[in-house]
Amino acid sequence: MGDGIIQAEREQxxxxxxRLHEWTWQPPSPEGLPTNSPYDELADAIIASGxxxxxxxGKLVELGNKGETTPVEIWQLRYIIAKHIATREWTxxxxxxxxxxxxxxxxxxxxxxxxxxxxxxxxSVLKWLLxxxxxxxxxxxxxxxxxxxxxxxxxxxxxxxxxxxxxxYNGRHTERNFKDRxxxxxxxxxxxxxxxxxxxxxxxxxxxxxxxxxxxxxPPHDEWALVTPLYDHGAIFYQRGxxxxxxxxxxAIISQPYNHVFRDGVFHPExxxxxxxxxxxxxxxxxxxxxxxxxxxxxxxxVLLAGGLxxxxxxxxxxxxxxxx
Length: 325
Known about the structure:
Elements: H1 3-15, E1 19-20, H2 38-48, E2 53-56, E3 59-63, E4 69-71, H3 74-84, E5 85-92, E6 101-107, H4 123-137, H5 157-167, H6 185-206, E7 210-212, H7 221-227, E8 235-239, E9 251-255, E10 262-263, E11 266-267, H8 269-282, E12 284-289, E13 302-307, E14 320-321
Parallel strand pairs: 1-5
Antiparallel strand pairs: 2-3, 3-4, 5-6, 7-8, 8-9, 9-13, 10-11, 12-13, 12-14
Helix pairs in contact: 2-4, 5-6
């Protein structure tokens, strides 16, 4: 057996299933930037290695075996990379005055602060991976539609009953005094509808248990600015038991705007543009059902804003997807 074959087999044993990646620094281009950035190549290799890294609301998190997510600290990222990525160590076969650097055996990136970036990444590269490189490349953590997809759309009997009850009042409160709203028939129907959304509609679409959000600081201001054009008479719902911080991976928004946004089967252009902006920025889709809004039945529609709402599955759940142009 040749030395080359023996060396290759030994290297495979040293890799332990890790992806081999060699850091190669390229000379700067005329614009002053690397022609083929080793930063980008390393980030791509880490994502391709199968590391369970995700982007949760702009922060890098690791997905556990039970589906839980943990924010990644910089010391943890070094360990995660070492678990999935290997490289070849540089060894000086010459002297300090006349160096002769050659690649040696398999090892892990150490990301030492004093490392020479001509040969290996240093601590600043690790920080860039954590704050930017991997966050931009990692898939966004989002909700997943419940499977198997139903053959027939759910009927949502509890929500439908609440809508029918609200329709009896034709948008009028039976108690004008705010302190007496607990006695108001329309308000009671609205509460029943909210409970049905949390206990029936959202579990039918996403599974799990859901609850109405009371307070909180989600969505952040920049994302809320995108939601606002689609939001009216709405509420935010969280998955029960979900860990903070909340985000599109464990939350959904219900809006009940008046039906001018969807009339005669046609979406208003401004409504479509707003849905498109939200989809592009946050990977959040928009589903609509004109029959399930209890705010003002016949005059308002129910809008579901959430991640993971594949447009093609909307009819299976009794909705119509807003298709960005």
